[in-house]
Design goal:
The protein is α+β, with helices and mostly antiparallel strands. The protein has 4 helices and 4 strands, in the order E-H-E-E-H-H-E-H.
């Protein structure tokens, strides 16, 4: 089967907490790859930042984006809560690690531009953040 169904997807932890770092970041990155392989999807770019995830992915036509996101967010949240029970103890998590919803955009002719953006956005945000800190009093 030949297809080109590429998507740029962004989603965030609940309250956009800056928690996707260290071992949690590693687990999220690894499990996104495993779950996407399981669903026959090809990860083209992945950037897990402290407070959000960027994913550029090729998805077969038989896989709906909403079901894919349900699998990614659901399975990863369950694994995070099982691996790090302390996350469940905080009163603001409840049983929900991720915020509701996600951003999704189809990727067309500007695929290379989006790929570069996903790949280099963290560096750009860090540069802007560092510049802002210089002027904080």
């Amino acid at each position: 089967m030949i297809y080109k169904c590429d998507y740029h997807i962004v989603w965030v932890p609940k309250y956009r907490l800056r928690i996707l770092k260290g071992e949690i970041k590693t687990l999220v990155e690894r499990d996104i790859g495993l779950l996407c392989d399981w669903k026959s999807c090809e990860v083209q770019e992945l950037n897990v930042q402290e407070d959000h995830v960027h994913l550029l992915i090729s998805v077969p036509p038989k896989v709906s984006i909403s079901k894919l996101m349900g699998v990614l967010k659901g399975k990863i949240a369950i694994k995070l809560f099982n691996s790090y029970p302390i996350l469940k103890q905080k009163p603001y998590w409840g049983n929900h690690f991720w915020a509701r919803g996600y951003f999704v955009s189809t990727v067309g002719l500007d695929e290379e531009m989006i790929r570069k953006y996903v790949k280099h956005q963290e560096k750009e945000e860090k540069r802007v953040e560092d510049n802002q800190q210089k002027f904080d009093f």
